[in-house]
Amino acid sequence: RCKASLERGLGLKSKAPEILHHELRSPEEVAQDLRGPDDVASLLESWKIATTWLLREIEVANCMLGHARLSGNEWSLNLPVSKCDRGGCGVERRLAHDCLAPACGFCGPCNLAHQVRRREVETGIAHTDPRALQLPLFPTVTGGIPTKQATVDAWNANISPTALSVRPRKATGHSARRSG
Length: 180
What we know:
alpha+beta, three-stranded antiparallel sheet, 8 helices, 3 strands, 9% strand, globular
């Protein structure tokens, strides 16, 4: 019962393969990629945040800068589009920052805070500004809203060729959720 509870909503292993942290390419390797205008600009960041917040590709693709909120030591993500939103009102995910360091850079809240700050600098708009609801948190190279497929393609671009030679697979829309 405990295992079933822990895996609830993660999807089948056969349909959503796990991608382990050590199987990802280094930030330096990813930075050298030439990407098209419709590709996700922040490959590794979208994966790190999706795994720690247990997000599906549709949630990542539709997440706007203004959907991130900080209250005390707790970050929340208001997701307007989610598979588990049966009422059509959106869902909220929350994670508290309880690390010893003020900004460890590894936990879910720290990764989200880093991405929010990065987007605020890029756009000149604070995440609390109403205009931030129109700005994607994980934009395409040209600043647009990525498609679900572009998000999954970005996740696949993160997997190292060495890892693929040992265990061939492709990420799907649920892989980040299963890997988190």
